[in-house]
Design a protein that fits this description.
By secondary structure, the protein is an alpha/beta fold. 41% of the residues lie in helices and 20% in strands. It contains eight helices and eleven strands. α6 packs across α8. The protein starts with a strand and ends in an 8-residue tail after the last strand.
């Protein structure tokens, strides 16, 4: 998924960004509340990691402005403040979860998945489509009870298409989900990933809608 990380500590910010990218996410990193608000207006994020100690605006006020501006994705507060009243205030202001620094990257990744599931209306860590099973926690794919090896970007494309079954997802939407700021994107990158997915999972799984995008049809949809 595409994540917006807000953190003004350079060392912690970079370490968190690298860790989450190694976990398969596209991560954009900002160091102020104002830059966060700008990024959210310009890009689609499944999750915002919000540091309450950002310069420019109090963290609780930044959270209220974020929700008031219409952002309905997951918000996970990551902060050094460990008092119960701070946690209560953050949750009441619209956060989905609260993690105190210092934190373990594996726990952070698990909390991101959990908060994002709730924001997307999912309750499980698995996406099932016929004989295809996508395990989000383990980042594993099984088809007909056999493991299928996918690259990080192939996995993320498949996840996005499965989460939006029955809807056509454009190439531009897939690119925004796959690549963060500064990453070079080849013009045919998405087409190449789709080609590889079809070779591994069958050509009939992903349907091309000419001049629009790609779709995995909902179960029971007419061919």
């Amino acid at each position: 998924m595409r994540i917006l990380l807000t953190e003004d500590d350079p060392q912690l910010g970079r370490a968190t960004q690298i860790g989450l990218e190694q976990d398969g996410h596209a991560v954009d990193w900002v160091t102020s509340a104002e830059h966060m608000h700008t990024a959210v207006r310009l890009h689609d994020y499944a999750c915002v990691l919000l540091d309450l100690g950002l310069p420019g605006q109090d963290g609780m006020a930044a959270l209220a402005r974020l929700r008031g501006g219409g952002y309905d994705g997951a918000v996970l507060i990551v902060t050094a403040r460990d008092q119960v009243p701070d946690r209560i205030a953050g949750l009441d202001a619209g956060a989905d979860d609260f993690l105190v620094k210092p934190f373990d990257l594996d726990e952070l990744a698990a909390r991101i998945r959990s908060a994002s599931r709730r924001a997307a209306g999912r309750v499980r860590e698995r996406l099932v489509h016929g004989d295809l099973v996508l395990d989000l926690a383990e980042r594993q794919v099984m088809q007909d009870n056999r493991p299928v090896a996918l690259s990080v970007k192939e996995f993320r494309i498949l996840q996005m298409l499965l989460e939006n079954r029955g809807r056509v997802i454009s190439r531009e939407q897939l690119e925004r989900n796959l690549y963060g700021w500064g990453e070079e994107v080849e013009s045919n990158a998405v087409q190449v990933h789709i080609h590889h997915l079809r070779k591994k999972l069958g050509r009939s799984l992903i349907r091309t809608v000419h001049a629009v995008g790609y779709c995995i049809d909902a179960p029971g949809a007419p061919a």
